[in-house]
TrEMBL record:
Cellular compartments per GO CC: plasma membrane
Coiled coil regions in record: none
Superkingdom of origin: Bacteria
SMART domains: DAGKc
Provenance organism: Emticicia aquatilis
The protein, known as: DAGKc domain-containing protein
GO molecular function: ATP binding; kinase activity
Stretches assigned to the DAGKc domain: 1-132
Keyword annotations: ATP-binding, Kinase, Nucleotide-binding, Transferase
Amino acid sequence: MNKQAIWFIVNPISGGKKVHQSIVELIDIQLDKQLYLPKICYTEYAGHATEIAADAVKNKIPIVVAIGGDGTVNEVGKALIHTNTALGIIPTGSGNGLARELGIPMKAAKAIESLNTPVSKQIDVCYANEVPFFCTAGIGFDAHCADIFSKMKGRGLINYVKVGFSEFWKYQPLKCVFGANIYEVFSITFGNASQFGNNAYITPTAIIDDGLIDCTIINPPSALQALPMIAQLFNGNIHSSDLSENYRGTKFKVSNDQNFLIHYDGEPLQLNTNELTISISEKCLRVII
Ligand SMILES: Nc1ncnc2c1ncn2[C@@H]1O[C@H](COP(=O)(O)OP(=O)(O)OP(=O)(O)O)[C@@H](O)[C@H]1O
């Protein structure tokens, strides 16, 4: 039988060095060598994963597996859109939104095991202007927190919760034009998938291969409304909150009087424009589930 080449792209920053060493050892032990010819590549800087994945496409590698969090998955996946190379994931981040959405096991050993009997499907890809995202992108509080989080030394869920809690009290609602209406929002999130990661379901009815973008606007909560809202986020009911407005479509436009700070799959990005268009390209990324 012809063996398939499979490249693993490891972000050594996500999850810590020990985690990655043990995953690489597990790959050596558990990956079916009758089926695969593996190659392990380590990223050396932000953006490097995209370059390695683009090289894999050029070399007609059938599967590239991202070992990292949603930032790494985004960097690898964006090079695979509209290609014949499929994206696999071994999650080591704190959110792991796309892996959770696709039902990929959180435990590395199980995730490697599922690569031995690969099943794939095509998913949609959304764009914030020209920036691709697979789970969510948005403006407002979440983008603000992603920005602060990215400048912190520590990573992980605990640090994210700390940032969210301390920033909540200071955060001023964002003025913007959404469709034909002027809003003052806490956040606007566009979902290709249903969650940010960590099973925080911000666009709970989103389906990753339905050709549609779900949108959740959160109006500014009072301190008393914040806790129930967080509970609804995690129990998948944010769309029934009094604070939320929900839309679904194939294109959304938002504008502002200042250039937007956005997040895409949890990564912050300061745009050079005050106009944001969210669009979707149907079933253009093959993923291993
Ligand atoms: N070798 C590297 N050195 C520095 N930064 C890197 C390197 N490789 C990748 N990165 C950057 O690390 C950032 C975080 O990656 P990722 O989101 O995968 O991990 P994480 O933050 O641990 O996960 P999560 O977002 O789920 O918490 C990304 O912005 C990516 O560009």
